Structures are given as structure tokens and as C-alpha cells.
Amino acid sequence: MQNDYPVSGVGLGLRRSMMDELMAEPPWDVDFMEIAPENWIGVGGALGRKFCWFTDRFPFTAHGLSLSLGGPAPLDEYFLERARGFLDAHGIRFYTEHLSYTSDDGQLYDLMPIPFTEEAVRHVAGRIRRATEILERPIAVENVSYYAAPGREMDEIRFLNAVLEEADCGLLLDVNNIYVNAINHGYDADEFLAALPGERVVYMHVAGHYVEAEDLRVDTHGADVADPVWALLERAYARFGAVPTLLERDFNIPPMAALRRELEIIRGLQEKHAAGSAKVRDAHG
User: Fold this and answer.
1) For residues 30 and 15, what is the distance between their CA atoms, to the nearest angstrom?
2) Which of 150, 178, 220, 224 keeps 20 to 30 A from 209, CA to CA?
3) Which parts of the chain are beta strand (E)?
4) What is the CATH superfamily name and number for domain 10-283?
5) With bands split at pLDDT 50, 70 and 90, how would you rate the model's confidence at 206?
6) Domain spans of the chain, in order of start
7) Global pTM?
């Protein structure tokens, strides 16, 4: 698989509550933005015009919430067709989804863990390939946080790599999720990083989490990024190069000045590792 990055630098998730502040003082130091298409498909009027203000000025990626790639119900091809029209209308070249499932007969409104089995690898990979055909653009899947592993026949890294290979798709690498899962499930985060196929990493997420207990972290996207996650992000850059990275913040959203301090940390780490990025890309072809 060849990486064709649709974005570069540092990114920020766009939330409706942020729009007025960002329009008043445009964040020109943000290189790209990300939205959940489910929150914007069919939105018109004043809010739709505000959204277009951003898509006219910034590159965007779409990060889906409800495609349910691992679910038992038929793939929602009607949604995919609507999503393709939405992406085309706003010039969004890239789509990502969670490696999870969210539905059966109806939406569960949560990211449920896919059983780590060979059967699930084939099931998910086939749905990724079909979604790619309908969307007419590349898809990357995100490694998710999970708190139980029902029906497990293999470990997480083997399952993730098998899906990437079978589907021939990209990886949206969530660094916070690696850290959270490593604590919760007792594996080594650096060994996980080392086992990933670097040529498939298209961009990264970094976010905050909640410390429930010494051996339990909850992925919330509602707090500042923790120091150990910053350290893991830097080690990811050392391995994969300074690939594009998006700061996720879904609630408890502070003023832009506070978010900008975290974006500056990302950019500083990227600049530190920029010299090695070309060598990493050349090594991966």
C-alpha cells in the first residue's frame, strides 16, 4: 500500500461549540480539521453555511462513528452513498472509521470490541473493501480502546495487522488508545508500536483520558493529553516519522488558547523528528 497523505502537520477536531470562536479568530496555525460526517450530512441553513466557511479554508478528513465495520448487520450502503456525496461536495478526500462495531438491529451508540478471531478478520476486511468501493476514496481504520475481549483467539496487534493486510487499507494510529489499552490489558506499548506496519500509518490521533484506577484508564477525549502519552507520541514519531497528527477533544473543551498549547507540543515534536521522516518514508517505499 502506498501512503498518499491528504493532510500534513497538526490538526484539530471541529466541534459546533467551537465554530464562532474559530471564525472570529481563524486558527491559521492549524493545518487540517476533522469531522464526524454523521454530524453534518444534510445540515443546511446558518449552521451549514458556517461549516462551509471552514471547508472552504481548511483541508478536512472525515472520521466516521456509525459504519459498524465489525457488526453483524448488513453494511449500511445507503449511508455510504450519502457520505460519498457529502465528501465530494466539500472536497474531503479521505475517510476513516473505528475498528469496532456500533450496531445490530439498531445503533448502540458505543464502540463495541470486535472479537479477535480469523473469522472476524475476513468479515471486517470484506466490509472495508466494499466501503472503499462505494466511497471511491481510501479508508483507514483506527485502533480503538476496549475494555473486554470476548471470543478472543489472538492478541490485539495480530488482529489489527491481519485486518490491515487483508483489507489493504491504511491505519489511523491513535496513540492514546495504545497507552490506555497497554495499561488496561497489561501489554508493552513500545512493543505494540514496533509491531505496526509503518507504511500503513496515514495520520495519528492524540487525546486525553481518565485515570479510574492504577490499572484502569478510560478513553474520554475530555482532558489534557497526559505526559506518558506525549512521550509515546514522540516514540511513534521516532519510528514512523513526523506524520500528520490530530488533537482530539470532544467535551470539557477549553478556549482555543489552551488547545493551541497542546497543538504547539505536537508541532514541536514533529519538527524535532522531521529530519528522519523522509528516511522513514523511503524505507517503507
Assistant:
1) 14
2) 150
3) 10-13, 32-35, 60-63, 95-98, 101-103, 107-112, 139-142, 170-174, 201-206, 209-213, 216-219, 245-247
4) Divalent-metal-dependent TIM barrel enzymes (3.20.20.150)
5) very high
6) 10-283
7) 0.91
